[in-house]
Structures are given as C-alpha cells and as structure tokens.
Amino acid sequence: MQPQLVNGIDDTTNQRSNVLMAWIVGFAASLFFFYEFILGNMFASIADDIMRDFHIQADKMAYLSSIHYLSNVIFLLVAGQILDRYSAKKTIIFAMILCVVSTFLLASSQSFYVALFCRFLTGIGSAFCFLGPMRIVSRWFPPKKMALVTGAVVTMAMTGGLLSQYPLTKLVLQFGWRESLVFVGWLGMALLVMMVVWIKNQPKGYQFETDQNKSVIEVAKQAYFNPQTFRAAMFTSLMNMAVAVFGAMMGSLYLMQRLGVGKEQAAMVNSMLFLGAIFGGPIIGWCSDRLGKRILPMKIGLIASFVVIMAILLLPVSLNVMTVLFFLLGFFTASQVISYALVAESSPPAMTATALSLISILTQGGYIIYQNLFSHLLIWHGGVTFVNDAPVYSFGDYQTAALMIPIGLIVAWVAIGKLKETHCQQIQKG
C-alpha cells in the first residue's frame, strides 16, 4: 500500500517532521526549567561562602534560599491561570528575563537584604519554569506519552541541578561565588535566545482550549479541591524533600561531616542525586507509559527511596558506596514525575496548567518548610563552631535533622493510598 500524499509529501514524512518539531519545542521550553534548577539548587555549592560574606548562620541561610520558593508559591497561585488563558511562550520568555536579571543583581549585592530581594525576584520568574513547558508540551504530545515527556522535562531540570553542584563548586573555588554567578547570568542570556527562536505555542491546527465562561476562582476551586490532584501533589512534594534539603542547600555540608571529605568530593557525591534523577525521570516515565499504569510505579519508587535513604543515614559506607546510594536516591525519587501525568489525565484539558500548579505550589512550598525545618533542627540539636568565620555543625546535628526525610516518605505513602488509577487515559472531560 502506497503512503498517502499530502502536497507531494507522504504522511510518514509529515508525522516524522511533526514529532521532531515537538521534541525541539519541548527541549527549548524545558531550557527554562533547566536554568531555574541551577538557580534553585546552587546554594549547596555556595552556602558556606554566602554565610561568610554576609556573616549569617544556618537559619538566615535558609531564609535566603527559601525566599525564592516563597515568592514562587505566591505567584504559582496565578501562574496556571495565566498559562491556561494567554500565550505560554510570551509568559515564560518574560519570566526567564526576570530570572537572568536577578542573577546578575545577586552577584553584585553587598547587603543580605538586597540578596533576599534578588532571590524573591528569581522566585517570581521561576513560578512559570515548570508549568510553562508542561502547558506547551501538553499541546504537542498525546496523553499516552506524557509520562515519558514529563520525565524528559524533569531530566532537563535535573541536569541544571547537576551543574549547580560539582561543576559550580569548581567554578566557585577558582573564581569566587560572585564571578561564578555572573557566568551563570550569561548562560541564562544564551538560553534565552534559544528559547525565543525555537519555542512555539502549539502545532498548526491545534485548537486552544480555555474555559472563559468560568471565573479564575471557579477554575482554581475545581482544580485545587480535587482530592486526586491534592494527593498526587503531596506525593510529589514529599518525594522531592531530599532534593530540597540535600540538593538545594545542605547536601555538601552534610556529606563533609558524614564522610570526612573535602568540599569538592562532597559536591561530587551530592551531584549524583541529580544524575540519578536524570536517568530515573525518563526511564520510570517510559515504564509507566508502557505498563499503562501510574500508581504502581509510584509506590515502587517510594519504597525503594525509603530503603536507600535509610542506608544513606544509618549504614557505615565508603565514599564510593555513598556515591552509588545518592545516585539511587535520585533515580527512585524521580518516580514523582508520574504524578504530573496522573494529574493531567485527571483534569479537564482546559485547566491542565491550573491543576499542575497545585503540584508546583506544594513542591515549592515544601522547599520553604523543609529547608527551614532542617536548619532549625540543626541549630536546636547542638552548638555551632566557627571556622574562618563560617558556622560548622556536627555530624550528630546533621544526622538528627536528616531523619525528617524518611519520615516524609512515610507520609507520602499515606497520601497516595486512595489515588485512582487513570490507565494513561483522560478520565475527566471539560
């Protein structure tokens, strides 16, 4: 049977071209998420330098790191509505500009409060870093591929997280944290140009779905008060706790005490958390799509994550074994990507971004809670000594604070107990 010709080109060629374009657009859109993960997780590499320069301890360090997520949560309340109603490309381009500008400002800041303001601005832009790409790829890819695509988008983010660890640590040791942030700012400028050129809102012939008959409050209530969405969002937030605490802020400092190694080696081990997620996101997403199930792989990933974090905290391990354990922790916690596909399938198409925004709100809000709780547990458990004007906490302090991670995974198990399986199909229609 001959392929059908359309304007002299067979259908197979058209389909391949559309698939290629979809991946190009998805890649370009996810560059924003990639960049935001550098900004969101870079404090693990510069925490001691920040505390030394601004003469602060772990509690104020947590404020500086988590205010990024505070503004993120505030603006996530409207980000989904904006993306569901207006141009996703224009929105994320503007948000990316805000992130780049605030990075340059932070690099030159001399005041702790100016630094707080810069991080607040970054958080505003970052409110769109995941929802924007997801809104776009949901128009370019069919539902049966969304777990794989979500995994790919998250992989881009985790690649940014990976770069914010050992590579950024090496850069900071050579040039200092301020000059290193200037480099990060110029990287953002280059990515911005790529985003402007390659991002397209939707393929030709796509009908933009929006529910203009419902008010913003009505749409938000329908999305946010859906128990399916809330439980999936809780799962994602709690599964992300290890990244929030170790990857984004205190991982290198914890490992320096846990293993008795230097900053570079600790940063290398900590970066394995992101490398594991880079592999885990698309692999677990692909498995979920192939199985036609969402909840089963989520549960398997959660159980495996619990076993690995207990090994990290309690077993006497070498540097090489800890490297493998951090990789596995990142790999299995990446099962959180499935919840995005599950929520998208459980929501009317016209409010996809709004429903997904609840996951982002609880996840980013979790960063605020987890980072501040961890830092307060550090201070509460014991004393602090100062080495070269930087505060140093004991291994016992870190160990006690880190117990919050396995406790969070137990709560996550409870949260997904009553989730409904979607079988990779849209179960609600707008």
Helix content: over 70%
The CATH architecture:
Up-down Bundle
Number of beta strands? 4
CATH class: Mainly Alpha
CATH domain topology: Growth Hormone, Chain: A
The largest sheet is: 2 strands, antiparallel
Low-confidence stretches: 1-9
The largest beta-sheet arranges its strands as: 1-2
Number of helices: 19
The figure for the number of domains is: 1
State Rg.
Answer: 21 Å
Alpha-beta content class: mainly alpha
Order of helices and strands: EEHHHHHHHHHHHHHHHHHEEHH
Q: Quick one: CATH superfamily?
A: MFS general substrate transporter like domains
Distance between the termini: 39 Å
Spatial shape: globular
Average pLDDT, all residues:
86
Quick structural summary:
With 430 residues, the chain is an all-alpha fold.
Give structural notes:
The structure is a single chain. Mean pLDDT is 86; it is low at 1-9. The protein is an all-alpha fold and 430 residues long. The chain is built from 19 helices and four strands. The chain has helices at residues 11-41, 43-54, 58-85, 88-108, 112-126, 131-140, 146-163, 166-175, 177-198, 216-224, 227-239, 241-259, 263-291, 295-314, 319-333, 337-345, 352-381, 395-402, 404-415; strands at residues 5-6, 9-10, 385-387, 390-392. A hairpin with a 2-residue loop joins strand 1 (5-6) and strand 2 (9-10). It has a two-stranded antiparallel sheet. It has one domain (5-415): Growth Hormone, Chain: A. The radius of gyration is 21 Å and the shape is globular.
